[in-house]
Amino acid sequence: MSAGVASIRARGRRLTPQRALIWDVLVERGDRHVSAAEVADAVHARAPEVHRSTVYRTLDVLVEDGLVLRADLGGDRSYYELAAEHHHHHVVCTGCGAVAHVHDEAIAAAVACVQAASGYRLAQQELTFAGLCPDCAAR
Known about the structure:
The chain has helices at about 5-10, 15-30, 35-45, 50-65, 105-120, 135-139, and strands at about 70, 80, 90-95, 100-105, 130. By secondary structure, it is α+β, with helices and mostly antiparallel strands. α3 (about 35-45) crosses α4.
């Protein structure tokens, strides 16, 4: 049994076949960011009887339980990924839509500057940067 499936049960949730299938689809995507529609399409390909609304509700439950992260990447684009051991931020290509991760260490100085300038002690945050990926910038 995978850690995620065990975590679903540990949080007092029933492990339905639909939840297990949705979890498996997310695990197969690894660290890719996938839309709810992509997850629903992959689930439908294996189990046509599973409704899209079930997929959307289950994604919400997995986010609520901290097993999956929802990243709002601008332009009304919400993507899902498995919760990682490390906190990270996103860089989104405005040309092709590619998404890359940027880890906390890369922006630590900027966060320190914001804290110093504002006087706030920042809580965990997620930042999304937009720009052109190397391939799009080379075109």
